[in-house]
Amino acid sequence: MIMFKFARPLAWLLLAIIIFVTVSPIGLRPETVTTVDTDRATAYILVGLAFALAYPKQWKLVAVLLIAGSVAIEYLQYLSPTRHPRLHDAGIKAMGAAIGLLAGWVINRWRETLMISG
Q1: pLDDT value at position 115?
Q2: Membrane-spanning residues where (predicted)?
Q3: Whose CA is closest to 66, among 37, 39, 34, 43?
Q4: Lowest CB count within 10 Å: 10, 22, 30, 97, which one?
Q5: Does residue 64 lie in a domain region?
Q6: 33-65 per-position pLDDT tens digit
């Protein structure tokens, strides 16, 4: 299966940004026009999609690591005195990752069928 060439660097860049934003002091958190739950979910949907497209043959391992990692990254906030980890936030992140991974899996399956039939 051919992967998207941009997916691997994009996936790792997005993950690095997520870790920075999650662990950095609250004052460095970007301001957006949406709710924080929407921001969290969107970030993890994008990183889940990117990782699913980057590693199509390892999607099960990627899913386990990314969903468990979303909880672990949330709890890294214990390292910052201005942040506070919450199970609710970790759940939003894990759901976002799962949605992104599912979307990537669907895209990968669709591409497989195109390659077989084309």
Answers
A1: 77
A2: 41-56, 61-78, 90-107
A3: 43
A4: 30
A5: yes
A6: 889 999 999 999 999 999 999 999 998 999 999
- 80, 101, 99, 85: which is closest to 41 by C-alpha? 99
Whole-prediction pTM: 0.89
Split into its structural domains, the chain has a count of: 1
H or E segment and range at residue 86: none
Q: Can you spell out the DSSP letters for 9-61?
A: HHHHHHHHHHHHHHHS-GGGSPP-SS-HHHHHHHHHHHHHHHHHHH-GGGHHH
Q: Is residue 55 a contact partner of residue 100, using CB atoms and an 8 Å limit?
A: no
Give the integer Cα–Cα distance in Å for 90 and 4.
28
Q: Within a domain: residue 112?
A: yes
- Enclosing domain of residue 50: 6-20+36-117
Whether the CB-CB separation of 107 and 53 falls below 8 Å is answered with yes
User: What ranges make up the beta strands (E) of 64-111?
Assistant: none
Q: Which residues, in sequence order, are CB contacts of 90 under 8 Å at separation 6+?
A: 70, 71, 74, 75
Residue entry with tokens 């386990």: 64
